[in-house]
Design brief:
51% helix; 9 helices; mainly alpha; 10% strand; 2 domains; three-stranded antiparallel sheet; single chain; minor pseudopilin epsh fold
């Protein structure tokens, strides 16, 4: 079955002023669409891989035939990363997490403020294109960055929250000021969606 570009769960201008409408349009309608199209193209001759879920495909990336592995890693990762990215953002969002997620963040990183600082460091310290992640490794939370469109799924982790620091995610509005983009991004984080992902990862679903 072919992979499909998901619709945005809100209008393209819903995240103003933190993320501008034109960036959202280009990011979703062109960049994300290209990942989906290129993933489908890479899998055209591989019915067995087409039948796998995107998550299983990425978890088993090392078993993907070598001649298409890089294409699947880049485009499959890009498809999954962005599908999550749209879901963990929203209008009238921001603030702080609560409940089990907040407790886990506090116990792992010291406090929510410390967590934000460490994620910003990971995001701004990533040379070139990539992502900063909060992930569940099966036992606890981890915070790190990855290059390009690599996903925590590729190392057996479940992505809980991811921040896109490719230039196309912020350059129209913030130019080379990645730290300003990171600061503004916290205003649109949908903590309920993140908490739902955390609960699902902990339960092994």
């Amino acid at each position: 079955m072919a992979h499909v570009l998901p619709n945005l769960p809100y209008p393209t201008d819903a995240l103003e002023t933190s993320i501008d409408k034109m960036t959202m349009e280009i990011h979703h309608d062109r960049h994300h669409k290209a990942y989906v199209d290129n993933l489908n193209k890479a899998l055209e001759a591989h019915a067995d891989l087409q039948a796998k879920s995107l998550e299983d495909l990425l978890r088993g990336i090392q078993s993907v035939p070598q001649d298409i592995r890089t294409a699947v890693q880049n485009n499959g990762g890009g498809h999954h990363n962005h599908s999550m990215f749209w879901e963990i953002m929203g209008p009238k969002a921001g603030g702080e997490p609560s409940g089990d997620l907040k407790s886990a963040i506090d116990s792992t990183f010291g406090s929510f403020a410390d967590f934000k600082t460490k994620l910003k460091t990971a995001a701004t310290g990533r040379f070139g294109s990539g992502w900063a992640w909060l992930a569940w490794d099966g036992k606890g939370l981890q915070l790190y960055s990855t290059a390009n469109q690599d996903s925590p799924l590729m190392q057996g982790h479940a992505p809980i929250l991811g921040l896109d620091v490719w230039e196309h995610a912020y350059y129209l509005k913030y130019q080379n000021k990645r730290p300003d983009y990171v600061d503004a991004w916290w205003n649109v984080v949908n903590w309920k969606a993140v908490a739902d992902r955390f609960a699902k990862a902990k339960s092994g679903r």
